[in-house]
Amino acid sequence: MKSIDAKFPIAEKQPTKLEKHGDVRIDNYFWMRLSDEQKNAEIKDEQTQKVVDYLEAENTYYDRVTAYTKSFQEDLFQEMKGRIKEDDASVPYKSNGYFYITRYEIGMQYPIYSRKKGSLDADEEIIVNVNEMAKGYDYFQLGGLSISPDNKLAIFATDTVSRRQYFLRIKNLETGEIYNDKIENTTGGSVWANDNKTIFYTKKNPETLRSEKIFRHILGTHSSEDVEVYHEKDDTFGCYVTKSKSKEYIIIGSYSTLSTESQFLSADNPTGEFTIIQPREKGLEYNVAHYKDHFYLLTNKDKATNFKLMKTPVSKTFKENWTDVIPHRDDTLLEDFSIFKDYLVLEERNDGLNKIRIKRWDKKEDYYLPFNEETYSAGVYGNPEFDTDIIRYGYNSFTTPSSVIDFNMKDKTKDVKKEQVVLGGTFNKENYSSKRVWATARDGKKVAISLVYHKNTSLNENTPLLQYAYGSYGSTISDGFSTTRLSLLDRGFVYAIAHVRGSEYLGRDWYEDGKMLNKKNTFTDFIDCSKYLIDNNYTSAKHLYAMGGSAGGLLMGAIINMNSELYNGIISAVPFVDVISTMLDDSIPLTTGEYDEWGNPNEKEYYDYIKSYSPYDQVTEKEYPNMLVTTGYHDSQVQYWEPAKWVAKLRELKTDNNLLLLNTNMEAGHGGASGRFNALKETAKEYTFLLALENRLDK
User: How far apart are CA 620 and CA 301, in angstroms?
Assistant: First the structure.
């Protein structure tokens, strides 16, 4: 990237003494933290104005430094937008006599949700047009739609701030009227009882945003009259409410990182009392589905690390009554299951790859769907119908656009309902190569790296390579297709996903070995993958880039503190980098529920370990790579002040002249901009940063 003489902002230092376990930390930038009340106040107080001025100064600096790239950013945005079929529509799915469709119109940012009764030839009924609803808002997000059993009413949820605090509204689908019922500060999800007038929903704690209470609302009444049916008082747990696929039960679930608990109620008796399926126990997890006179449970009971499937009579649900349906396997992670009238469908992961297994209840057949690529992503979704032989699943890979496929489990035929269209006239899947390689980590473990690149790209020390990872919460990043990524691949970049510990790529143990007091394995795995790619001549430190977001942004902060010399550039999106301070503050959203992921620093052992890798605390006087850091002012997941403080401290201590850019979206939160095109603009910013460092803006 060009050398720019623009002077970067220098944040004021106001030392704040923080002490825990006899250890004293001095935080010079603690003042950047604002409360929600300060952020949302119409008249800003002195501190709020100072914070906003700093963030806007950083945005101005970003704009000045990147001014010469703006034309290219716009070209790149148009290029990525040009691959998208703007008047696109989902494959219709059938539920309760209606076909449901999500579609987009040319030039529109948001979807239109519609349905057709009985046949795809029937007249279209618009459920909600999000484009109309979003008018006048800088940010708009529609939450879960929920249709009443009699098909006459719809609940929908909206968030106009990007803090994932949704309003619930109810619409009459026959008249188009939106009722006066308005419920604030919810998760966005809701379920109907079978009487078509009772709704169950989840409320958030207004300060911590923890999902903590389940309420019952009666159509036509004021939300102040809603009845609290459950309060999750353990602040390390959250809760939710759902409905069984059989439509017979309302289920309340409570969850933490290590434990779950469920209770059920007949959907025909919404004012009744909920019944516990199995009381919570530390380390016991189970997810529930209903079939005939049994509950089926995906669980880790009996030390089933990779989970197994069990069942129990509805009349006797405690764990002593559970019996195995699919036993535990050491080499296969059971990720999910779907129940149909005649079939049980299992989603498994073996050797890092998705598998879909189909079993008849009468035991006459048990087989796997065939997938032939070396690395790919496949998953079951959108199957609300119970009495059907058809299962719908999605398939894609690094080189194969997404497909929606209906598979007939009876005659084993498949119907590709839709394959993602890539417009622009230049895409040919045969022009790209993908593969998996395995790096040996410093403790001998093998870590998979999935790679994709254009076949014309030579792999050598001069090849630019973007290495991505997440590595937390057991979340596994799929090797999926991306139309936007083509803009990098076509300009000679290699894209790599490092499947580091902290995910469940190689099973539950892979996750356990990358959390709590094993968290540093996530960071060293990523670094060891980088060294492998350099040592095997895929790239060099001059052309290696790394990217991660949220907990993956923490990963970015850790690797540059540990081995900054390996990378020419870093993109750290909404990064969780002030780990020790955040985990010590239980008023911050989501903190208490994270103790089982990172450890509770109120205990000295965890305090010392977290501090030893917390990126903000470990910034030192040394050289750092070129960096682009992004955040959202209204982020409820990772508060904006974490990346802002981190950048200020890096500016203070780093000894190099490399770029350090902070770009804050003042209207958005954790997920970035809303709208399908606005999100592309953010991707264009990130890719332009990389391509400018490689001097490839003219290609």
Answer: 45
Instruction: Please identify which of the residues 450, 487, 670, 674 carries the catalytic annotation.
Output: 670
Residue of 617, 635, 636, 674 marked active site: 635
Residue type, 376: Y
Q: What is the mean pLDDT of residues 575-602?
A: 86
Residue 441, pLDDT > 50, answer: yes
| Burial (CB count <10 Å: 0-12, 13-18, 19+), residue 677 | middle
Token pair listed for 460: 């050598």
Q: Is the pLDDT of residue 672 over 60?
A: no
Q: Distance between terminal CA atoms of the chain?
A: 15
- pLDDT of amino acid 157: 86
Two structure tokens written together for 206: 């207004």
Answer for the pair 397, 373: CB distance below 8 angstroms, yes or no. Answer: yes
pLDDT tens string 134-171? 888 877 888 878 999 999 999 988 887 766 788 888 99
What confidence tens digit (pLDDT) does each residue in 365-414 have? 999 999 989 899 999 987 888 889 999 999 999 999 999 999 999 999 99
Is the predicted pLDDT of residue 668 greater than 90, yes or no?
no
In the three-class reduction of DSSP (H, G, I as helix; E, B as strand; rest coil), residue 87 is classed as coil
Beta-carbon contacts of residue 241 (< 8 Å; ≥ 6 apart): 189, 190, 191, 200, 201, 202, 214, 250, 251, 252, 253
Contact in structure between 642 and 549 (CB atoms under 8 Å): no
Residue at 298: amino acid letter: L
- Look up residue 161 and give its amino acid: V
> How many CB atoms within 10 Å of residue 185?
15
Q: Name the residue among 176, 166, 82, 89 with its Cα closest to residue 127.
A: 176
Over residues 266-292, the mean pLDDT reads 96
Q: How much is the CA Rg of the chain, to the nearest whole Å? A: 26
DSSP string over 530-572: HHHHHHTTS--TTTEEEEEETHHHHHHHHHHHHHGGG-SEEEE
3-class DSSP state of 496: strand
Q: Residue 550 catalytic?
A: yes
Rounded distance between C-alpha atoms, residue 113 and residue 94, angstroms: 14
**pTM assigned to the model:** 0.88
| Catalytic annotation, pick one of 550, 581, 636, 674 | 550
Is residue 670 annotated as a catalytic residue, yes or no?
yes
